């Protein structure tokens, strides 16, 4: 058996008669950074959401850290605790400060005491470069800063896997860089990351592997050098011609 952190086997997902994922097989090794690229509607978000069971697969298996999340006996809440997810929209609590936004789930889900939760939150806000914003409310923060709070909040749960779904797509162009910088740092620190992104420069530089999806299947995958630099499949070539 492979010791990959994420192992996905023959994953299918349909919404009614819309067959969105059509047999996905892939793995993410411990410490690996995998970027998923592909046209809108190709199933990227659905794939990511199946990894932490925000969507229930129609068939196939999803193993995370050796645990089969599709097994009816699996404790999904327990498994999900170790998977951080960052979305396009930041979804911060507006009536909580940056610091308390990073404390709530620690206290509610991990049952950490207030003092420990505060220390962990504080450390992670510093880690994403928000040392001077601990007490700021989301409305007073830029989109880039809010997204960094969302990353710090996910990190505060001590995840062993981070999922990112187009984390910079909702940001003004000048704010994209600060979020990518934080993600690059996490990658360098050895975090296992699965990232859906349209940022080809980021994928090229940071990804260990790039997966190109179209029509609910993986069309091509490999190093960024191969997939972005010299794609083999016509569909990959066409997609890259449009986005590069
Ligand atoms: P991508 O992230 O690559 O743009 P998605 O995974 O969001 O693609 O969507 C793939 C397809 O699945 C689309 O046709 C979309 O309409 C459909 N879909 C996604 N989520 C749902 C849902 N919760 N209910 C019904 N259809 C959905
Ligand atoms: Mg999507």
UniProtKB/TrEMBL annotation:
GO molecular function: ATP binding; ATP hydrolysis activity; ATPase-coupled polar amino acid-transporter activity
Membrane-topology descriptor: Peripheral membrane protein
Alphabetical list of InterPro entries matching this protein: AAA+_ATPase, ABC_ATPase_HisP-typ, ABC_transporter-like_ATP-bd, ABC_transporter-like_CS, MetN_ABC_transporter-like, P-loop_NTPase
Catalysed reactions, semicolon-separated: a polar amino acid(out) + ATP + H2O = a polar amino acid(in) + ADP + phosphate + H(+)
Protein name per the record: ABC-type polar-amino-acid transporter
Cellular location(s): Cell membrane
Main location group: membrane
PROSITE patterns linked to this entry: ABC_TRANSPORTER_1, ABC_TRANSPORTER_2
ABC transporter domain residues: 6-240
């Amino acid at each position: 058996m492979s010791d990959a952190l994420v192992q996905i086997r023959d994953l299918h997902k349909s919404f009614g008669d819309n067959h969105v994922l059509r047999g996905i097989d892939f793995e993410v090794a411990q410490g690996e950074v995998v970027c998923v690229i592909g046209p809108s509607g190709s199933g990227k978000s659905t794939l990511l959401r199946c990894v932490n069971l925000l969507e229930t697969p129609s068939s196939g298996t999803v193993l995370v850290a050796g645990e089969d999340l599709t097994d009816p006996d699996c404790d999904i809440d327990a498994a999900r605790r170790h998977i951080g997810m960052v979305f396009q929209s930041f979804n911060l609590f507006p009536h909580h400060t940056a610091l308390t936004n990073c404390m709530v789930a620690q206290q509610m889900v991990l049952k950490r005491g207030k003092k420990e939760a505060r220390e962990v939150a504080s450390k992670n806000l510093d880690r994403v470069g928000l040392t001077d914003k601990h007490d700021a409310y989301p409305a007073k923060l830029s989109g880039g800063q809010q997204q960094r709070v969302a990353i710090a909040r996910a990190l505060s749960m001590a995840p062993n896997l981070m999922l990112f779904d187009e984390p910079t797509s909702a940001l003004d162009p000048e704010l994209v860089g600060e979020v990518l910088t934080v993600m690059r740092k996490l990658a360098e620190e050895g975090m296992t990351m699965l990232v859906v992104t349209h940022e080809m420069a980021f994928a090229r530089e940071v990804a260990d592997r790039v997966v190109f999806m179209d029509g609910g299947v993986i069309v091509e995958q490999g190093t960024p050098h191969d997939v972005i630099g010299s794609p083999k499949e016509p569909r990959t070539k066409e997609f890259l011609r449009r986005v590069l």
